[in-house]
Structures are given as C-alpha cells and as structure tokens.
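Extended Data, panel c. Modelled sequence:
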Amino acid sequence: QVQLVESGGGLVQPGGSLRLSCAASGFTFSDYVMMWYRQAPGKERELVATISTAGSSITYADTVKGRFTISRDNDKNTVYLQMNSLKPEDTAVYYCKAGRGSINYWGQGTQVIVSS
C-alpha cells in the first residue's frame, strides 16, 4: 500500500522556520522524483520545489527561492522541506508528491500557518 505521510507543520511567527518531512512507503522511493506543493485558501495548488531521484537536480518556485531547501534521504525514504524566513503568504497546506512518468502519489498534507 502506497503511503506518503507529511509531518512538521504548525503555527510559526513571521521570520521563523519549520522543517517538513514526508515519509514514503509502498513503492521504490529512489525511483521517483519528489515534489512539494502548497495550497492556500481560495488559491490553486502551487509547485514549491522539486528534487530528482538522486538529489542532483533541484528547482524552486521564485516565491520561495533562497528561503526554502528541499532534500531527500533515499535510505530513509523521506523527503524534507526546510523553510526559513517564513512570511504570512507562506501560509498553506503543504503536500508532497512522488512522480514517475504518468504515476503520481500524493500525501494528505500538513498545515503551515505563519502569523504573529
């Protein structure tokens, strides 16, 4: 059974940091590109960051570049999103996604609220 389980969300003040984790099971994690998306209330889901299977290729949305860092540990079947210098506009539900060709798996999401 395929599972992607996000964790690490919560309430943080502007300027603060959070580290999200996404633990995968039920498929060969190292064969899949991993992505973090987010969806704010009333907005479309937005691609935040992508990391290739071996971690050698990484891309970020312009809105998070320089503040967020995506990484993966293929031994632990886990992808991470380190979020620094958080802003209120980063408030959203954050989802991880595993992709390989036409196959995509989604996690259930973790809420991040940036507010004073």
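The longest strand covers residues 92-100. This feature is highlighted in the accompanying rendering.
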